[in-house]
Amino acid sequence: MRIKPTLPFVMGFFALNMIMAELHEQVHIQAGYFICGCYGERNFNVWNTCGQCAQSQWSFLATLAGPLFSCSLMWLGAWWIVKSSQPQKMLSGFLLIFTNLPFARIFTALIGGGDEKVVIQSVSGIADPVIRRLITIVLVTAICLPPMVIAYKKLNNPRRLLWIVGFAILPLIYGMLYHHMFLNWLLEKGIGSGVYVLGTPNLILVHFILMLLLLVACRKATRPGVVIIPSSV
Q1: Which three-class secondary structure state does DSSP give residue 29?
Q2: What interhelical angle do 60-83 and 115-123 show, nearest 10?
Q3: What is the DSSP letter of 181?
């Protein structure tokens, strides 16, 4: 397949990325609520279980739920790219892979963070932090790298490696500047910080709805969205 992004396509990718990021957080906090019966504090990218969750031996499942959700969507996207002959479904597969941030998960594991590290620390019983970190890196890379490789092999754009690098790294950059820093700064200033439903500040819910509207608008404006040329590459 060959992809030629338009501006609406880029905006649609951004909107879907923001939606996937919030769904990832919702899976975390709703799993925590199901296990512990209460919500902890959260912002756009950091969440906590409530105090009584510390007494539950199953609280690690709330941490595990997020990467299970995101990685499942990455692999669903890879499956669609490999198995589908429909251009729109192949595009959807490509988007599912990269809007769920496979490179970000690998990078976070490399620098010693991430949900996977917390889960391994909770369930492995391994005392050595170096060994735990190595296990995390190997595991996350084994899960998150193959979908990117599949997308690379099926992409027929010139300089396709640069395309894959761009889709992998640019969300990390704007995600840090816009999502983690700017939006969390608004929350810290008290803008939309009240919580009424889902254990989620109102600003986050409003932002999620706006991203849904943007995605729908861009999808209508760009259908088929990009030029996709099926290829055996």
Answers
A1: helix
A2: 120
A3: I
- The residue behind tokens 């990467």 is 67
**Cα distances (Å, whole numbers) of residue 58 to 31, 47, 206:** 10, 17, 31
For residue 194, give the 3-state DSSP assignment: coil
Looking at residue 42, what DSSP letter applies? B
Structural Rg of the chain based on CA atoms: 19
Q: What single-letter DSSP state applies at residue 159?
A: T
pTM, two decimals, is 0.91
User: What are the Cα distances from residue 203, in Å, to 88, 99, 181, 182, 209?
Assistant: 32, 21, 14, 12, 10
CB 132 within 8 A of CB 211: no
CB atoms closer than 10 angstroms to residue 201: 21
Provide DSSP, 93-106.
Answer: HHHHHHHT-HHHHH
Per-residue pLDDT of the chain (233 residues; tens, 9 = 90+): 778 778 888 999 999 999 999 999 999 999 999 999 999 999 999 999 888 887 778 888 999 999 999 999 999 999 999 998 788 888 899 999 999 999 999 999 999 988 999 899 888 877 788 998 999 999 999 999 999 999 999 888 888 999 999 999 999 999 999 999 999 999 999 999 999 999 999 999 999 999 999 999 987 644 444 444 444 44
Specify the residue for token string 């879907």: 16
